[in-house]
Design a protein that fits this description.
The chain has helices at about 5-10, 80-90, 95-100, 140-150, 205-225, 260-265, 305-320, and strands at about 15, 20, 35-40, 50-55, 60-65, 65-70, 75-80, 115-120, 130-135, 185-190, 190-195, 230, 245-255, 270-280, 285-295, 320. With about 325 residues, it is α+β, with helices and mostly antiparallel strands. It has 2 domains: about 30-170, Roll (PH-domain like); about 185-320, Lipoprotein like domain (Double Stranded RNA Binding Domain), CATH 3.30.160.150. A 7-stranded antiparallel β-sheet has the order 6-5-4-3-9-8-7, with helices on both faces. Strands 12-11-13-14-15 form a 5-stranded mixed β-sheet. It has a two-stranded antiparallel ribbon with strand order 1-2. Strand 5 (about 60-65) and strand 6 (about 65-70) form a beta hairpin. Helix 5 packs parallel to helix 7. The protein starts with a helix and ends in a 7-residue tail after the last strand.
Length: about 325
């Protein structure tokens, strides 16, 4: 018997890669949802336009002539922009962080009226990835619910209370020593593992958390000076020598206004302050601790504050660590 879902999906023509295709060509496809991949998918450039569908039991992002799949059962967390609004409005004392000008309402992270879909998933090696999509209004929650039905997890249920449904974070080694702000000489480190950004004290939108993480990895790969940069949970890093671990915690966040920056070029700054702690992978010793602040002061999207932070954090790493002798790429 043909399911109701398939009847609904087959009843209209589909738009794929900018072209209308016949019903017969789309018999295995969901109606595509226009989307922009802001960041995160492997092999896909930031801000790539495409479409999202649920095909063959996977979330598929199609752009140009290529596509990338994410299996729902690999998704550790899926959160929408509406979820962030519910958390903020339902948590006493946090609304001011997102509405610093006393507007009394949740401010969109993007100038255009869009939905956001933020996903954290693990690849075959256990490495944690974060992906941000923007989609038309009214579509992100639908996609989220379908993903949950296929086995994805979420930290914010769509209905009911806000009790997290995601797995507990992995055990981590607590630093055992206090570190100087900067050591007198560079520390040998051939590789670094980047843990997901934490924001327990500051209610940070999921988009910012993932953007901080992905931008930090990208900047460390480009400018950190390490031979290898690993993601949280990557099992392939287990036996890598001279590896350090970077744990970052958001200590402050001011949500600014893109429109105010564009109009006045001086008002509406967004800023994020992150505590970065570099520890030895073997014994958990704290090697270096530094507060790093990311800003968007003039023209630019609010998420660019995460890019500014990542560049500065990579600079801190490059100034204080160097690859150990004898280790090569």
């Amino acid at each position: 018997m043909v399911s109701k879902l398939k009847v609904r999906l087959f009843s209209i023509p589909l738009l794929v890669a900018g072209q209308l295709v016949s019903v017969s060509d789309a018999q295995q496809s969901q109606t595509p949802t226009k989307a922009v991949q802001v960041t995160g998918l492997i092999g896909v450039k930031n801000n790539t336009k495409g479409s999202l569908t649920l095909e063959d039991g996977a979330l598929r992002f199609t752009h140009s002539s290529s596509s990338t799949d994410v299996a729902p059962n690999s998704i550790q967390d899926v959160v929408t922009g509406n979820d962030s609004q519910r958390v903020i409005r339902g948590t006493v004392g946090t609304l001011s962080l997102f509405a610093p000008y006393g507007s009394g309402r949740f401010l969109s992270l993007f100038r255009s009226k869009l939905d956001t879909l933020t996903i954290q998933y693990r690849d075959a090696d256990g490495a944690l990835h974060g992906v941000i999509f923007t989609t038309p209004v009214g579509t992100a929650d639908v996609i989220k619910n379908e993903l949950i039905g296929l086995g994805a997890r979420t930290s914010i249920p769509t209905q009911g209370n806000l009790t997290p449904d995601s797995p507990a974070p992995p055990d981590v080694k607590e630093p055992v020593l206090q570190a100087q702000d900067r050591w007198p000489a560079k520390i040998n480190a051939s590789a670094i593992t980047v843990m997901m950004i934490q924001s327990d004290e500051v209610k940070l939108p999921a988009e910012f958390q993932v953007s901080l993480y992905e931008n930090l990895i990208q900047q460390l790969q480009k400018n950190g000076g390490f031979h290898r940069v690993y993601r949280e949970g990557d099992r392939s890093s287990a036996d890598v020598p001279d590896r350090i671990v970077l744990r970052s915690t958001v200590r402050g966040f001011k949500k600014g206004s893109e429109m105010a920056r564009d109009v006045t070029t001086v008002a509406g700054a967004t800023s994020i302050t992150v505590r970065c702690e570099f520890t030895d992978n073997n014994d958990g010793q704290l090697l270096l601790a530094r507060d790093v602040k990311g800003n968007v002061r003039f023209l630019g999207g609010n998420l660019r504050a995460t890019y500014d932070f990542a560049k500065k954090a990579a600079g801190v790493a490059r100034e204080n660590f160097s690859p150990a002798a004898g280790n090569v790429k």
